[in-house]
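Lab notebook page, bench 4
Experiment: in silico fold of construct C2
Operator: M.H.
Input chain length: 531 residues
Purpose: comparison with the prior construct
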Amino acid sequence: MLRERRNWWSIPSLARKIPLSVAGKLEGRAEVMGLDTRKHSRGEITSRVAMVFDDPESQIFGLSVWEDMVMSLELAGLSREEIQKRVDYALERTRLTGYMDRFPYLLSGGEKQRLVIASALARMTPILVLDEPTSELDPIGTTEVFDTIKRLREETAMTIIVVSHKSEQLAQVADRLALMSDGQVKLVAPKKEFFSNVDVLLKSGVRPPQVAELGSQLKEKYQKIYGYPTDLEEARKSLKKIIKKRISIPRRAEKMPEADPLIIIKDLQHMYKSESGDVHAIKGVNLEIMPYDFIGLIGQNGAGKTTLVKHFNKLLSATEGNVIVDGDDASRKTMLDLVAKVAYSFQNPDHQIFNTKVEDEISFGPGNLGFSGEELEEAVDEAVEAVGLVGREEENPFFMGKGERQKVATASIIAMRPKLLVIDEPTTGMDWLTGRSTMEMAERLNKEGKAIIVITHDMTIVAEYAKRVIVMMQGNILLDGPPEDVFNQPEVLKKSFIEPPQISQLMSEFVEGKAVLSVREAAEIINTLEE
């Protein structure tokens, strides 16, 4: 199932969270296996429906994997033998066999999500609902979860409902898809038919797989041959009927303006202290960031991305090495000195927002930097306009959607008029339209003269917006260059568990010289083929 964030209540109603846990007026009828959710108890409904949410830690309670899994089974009054049988079954299906004594909070993001799926699976309900199960995960975690879903689909008789914006992964596991928009089911169809409705999906804030989207941008002649494939293999077979030989596309060298580096990193190392031993998070990194850069900083969780950028405004101090910010040695400056030049927007806006009025939140940072009177008012107005929140200054940000809260958090750092903005996972949990709006805002700020670093697991965003890509792996920089060069090295990227965007993978078989970065670029290449 694909849906916008404002339709979040559609799935909880299946498990009777609505109307019991969420206030509001409920009309109509919802049945689960013949049971009216208004007339039957939550226990009766949840014995048939198990739910897994996007944040696994909100569903983990035990001090070991075993303890976490058996809690609901013991409450159900099952025998020790039956509990052991179900736990073994669920752990095997989710590839967690041997994890029973592990402390859940030390598992990776993908392992935690697989644990809560295993706990739900052990209940052996006929229906399993997964609500945004990969929204917080890196590429390897996302792959683990969707591989688990695919395996459950193949090996069990469960009805599985997955709510997600990740259409390319859904296309690999779903039999049927439903689109929700404005509180209504707009489209229900088998995946082939569903993803051929490209315009309907895009208008509803859902981006179809790039290989299907390509079909909508081809000339009629080529569209008839290519169709609307839903996976890479099908797309390659269709495209081979159109492109008969490899096309060489030379790289266009961009002339960069002359400027002094904004950030200089020399032999940077960072060690985290812990009871289990020191963690060497950054291992001798050397890097320069220019005033005009728009950087996509990528790599799996634990690669060192966030640790690296936190040195730019002294959220962290170097264990060894030097950090030079706008000509100043960071070690000799206060955090307040540096945040005026480098501002950081956290992945979760709720870790950043604390005021109950948008205007107060945005004015707090520049006010602490000494802005006052007309200067402060202008800074706030500029930030509000930059993120598209004009007219909403009096609203309470805590009552806004996550995408809007992210805009408030970003506006609060824009208002400080820094030279560099670091935005951590700006589109997590957003639909495509909201995510695109956020990235267009960042692009606009970059054109106005601000350097931008976006930390993200979304390779499509990186390919379409970044001018430079830095790939980190185990505390080192693996690759650094333009996206058309970086995404043209799939074997190197594979070391960091990163795949190029789907359209780049498709066109790599037919184009040489550079990576194709967008559906529009691919369509232009195909539509201009000689007859």
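Observations: Confidence is low (pLDDT under 50) at residues 1-11. Residues 139-155 form the longest helix (17 residues).
Next step: discuss at group meeting.
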